[in-house]
Amino acid sequence: GAVVSQHPSWVICKSGTSVKIECRSLDFQATTMFWYRQFPKQSLMLMATSNEGSKATYEQGVEKDKFLINHASLTLSTLTVTSAHPEDSSFYICSARALGGGGQETQYFGPGTRLLVL
Amino acid sequence: GQNIDQPTEMTATEGAIVQINCTYQTSGFNGLFWYQQHAGEAPTFLSYNVLDGLEEKGRFSSFLSRSKGYSYLLLKELQMKDSASYLCAAPRGNTDKLIFGTGTRLQVFP
Fold this sequence. Notes:
The complex is a heterodimer.
Chain A: E1 4-7, E2 10-13, E3 19-25, E4 32-38, E5 45-51, E6 57-58, E7 67-73, E8 76-81, E9 90-99, E10 105-109, E11 113-117
Parallel strand pairs in A: 2-11
Antiparallel strand pairs in A: 1-3, 3-8, 4-5, 4-9, 5-6, 7-8, 9-10, 9-11
Chain B: E1 3-5, E2 9-13, E3 18-25, E4 32-37, E5 44-49, E6 53-57, E7 60-65, E8 70-75, E9 84-91, E10 98-100, E11 104-109
Parallel strand pairs in B: 2-11
Antiparallel strand pairs in B: 1-3, 3-8, 4-5, 4-9, 6-7, 7-8, 9-10, 9-11
């Protein structure tokens, strides 16, 4: 249980285009999903919290108009990188909360999406 | 503020034991997580500690001391496949937003 998928797994695009990344919880419902970004040899940085049926909440320094988040259902959240530029090239990872072993809520991560903007 | 510190890199030999330390400063405490992340992959959950003491799960154990703001991940009988980054994380305040340390890159040699 507690499987999270992401699509696509990697994408290469030209500067100025928009890229949509999907995050799905496959075997559980997730009212909250999280989007992270990870640059090479660095740790995960939380970008935003995606809430089903309401607006996402963004971390300080993350442009909400550039990183559009939609949480359309209890199993799907999407992140759209609008007008992508080379500095947006990164590893984007989503996570969703689910009950783990022992009954505590744990965040389970998707496999990540590697974005390269040329 | 909130801060999580862990060593950047460690090396060890196959079959040995290694301890990866993590110190944290958080506003409020709602548990501490350890994740394993292989290069180019997403993190996978290893452990969650909310009470003091050692919790063992097979070859991996995790320890927590809330009074000292300190945790460690203990890996026994190291295998080559254990070469990965190990991330220490804690919820920010009373939220469910995880703050990650920089990660400790462990390299296991034969």
